[in-house]
Amino acid sequence: MFKALLLSKDEYDNRSHAIVDLDDAELPDQPIVVDVEYSALNYKDGLAIVNGTPIVRSWPMVPGIDLAGRVASSEDPRWSPGDRVIVNGWDIGELHWGGMATKAAVDGDWLTALPDALTTKQAMSVGTAGYTAMLSVLTLEEHNITPSCGPVIVTGAAGGVGSIAVAVLAKLGYEVIASSGRINTEGSYLRGLGAASLVGREEFSGPARPLGKARFAGAIDTVGSHTLANIISQTQAHGCVAACGLAQGMDLPGSVAPFILRAVTLAGVNCVYESTQRRTQAWNRLVSDLDTTKLKDMTSTIGLAEVPTAAAQIIAGQIRGRLVIDVAS
Asked: How would you class 183 by CB atoms within 10 Å of its CB: exposed for 0-12, middle for 13-18, buried for 19 or more?
């Protein structure tokens, strides 16, 4: 038997969630079973638990786009019992049962070896949010955005992706501008992560000018919509904006002017289907470029029973940093 948070819906499309005990035989038909030690609550998980669709595409569903633990059994020669592993993305928690359970059945291609320097709890303190943040930092570097180029802005800076992006960029020597709707309450927190200055999100939430004052050498945007359009319009010549979120919306109501007149690059970051090589690169860089003392400061731990309440809070923008789930508690 194993414990799980299970999302269900009936024939009338009424949705419900409950913590249940399930038989191992109910696990999906996958070659590897992982004893899950920790999962995490991400914005996408919040959407799945609070709203169901369009995130959840198969019912019933165990949510959780992150998990960390040890291989319990394996029919895949690449993985052996006892291996410490993480899973981010690959549609777990959406199409395949995810990490909010004490056991998970997964495909070998989805696994990444957990770096020796990280515990499973630390791995979930990082989670998809931190992995996405690191992919975004790599994207800026690959577009030649170095600390000497000028300031880099991070939107949604008090959230999971934003918090880790601020911490990593600051450690690498960038001048980080943190944008958040919670400057008044989280300003000290963001400065503690390394932000050099703070900007309220309202400055970017309205319609964007076709071409604004050039302010940023680069950006990591977790918000999308008008915010992303404003950031692009205020990016310097040959700057790069790494777009990795859409909390404000999926639209992009902007102009082509920054791309043509300033040669700005808009680079998408997809954390779900990256290659094993790219994932390993990102996780190894997190080990070297993320101060784990700051990781501790930005992380809270909850049990499975607390997840539904926390899911509503994360959708409402009320969660700071990262929420790790101790699936056994």
From this structure: middle
pLDDT digits (tens, 9 = 90+) for 154-177: 999 999 999 999 999 999 999 999
d(CA 221, CA 196): 17
The percentage of residues in the chain with a pLDDT greater than 70, rounded to a whole number, is: 100
CA nearest neighbour of 324 among 47, 123, 63: 123
If one compares 11 and 150, the residue with the highest pLDDT of the two is: 150
pLDDT at 54: 83
Q: Please state, in angstroms and rounded to a whole number, the distance separating the CA atoms of residues 122 and 137.
A: 20
Whole-number pLDDT of residue 317: 87
Q: What percent of the chain has pLDDT over 90?
A: 94
Q: 208-213: which pairs have CB atoms within 8 A and are 24 or more residues apart? A: 208/232, 208/233, 208/253, 208/254, 208/255, 209/233, 210/254, 210/255, 210/257, 211/255, 211/257, 211/258, 211/261, 211/262
Looking up tokens 């302010």 gives: 215
How far apart are the C-alpha atoms of 5 and 17, rounded to whole Å?
7
Which 3-state string (H, E, C) describes the chain? CEEEEEEEECCCCCEEEEEEEECHHHCCCCCEEEEEEEEEECHHHHHHHHHCCCCCCCCCECCCCEEEEEEEEECCCCCCCCCEEEEECCCECCCECCCCECEEEECHHHCEECCCCCCHHHHHHHHHHHHHHHHHHHHHHHCCCCHHHCCEEECCCCCHHHHHHHHHHHHCCCCEEEEECCHHHHHHHHHHHCCCEEEEHHHCCCCCCCCCCCCEEEEEECCEHHHHHHHHHCEEEEEEEEECCCCCECCCCCCCHHHHHCCCEEEECCCCCCCHHHHHHHHHHHHHHCCHHHHHHCEEEEEHHHHHHHHHHHHCCCCCCEEEEECCC
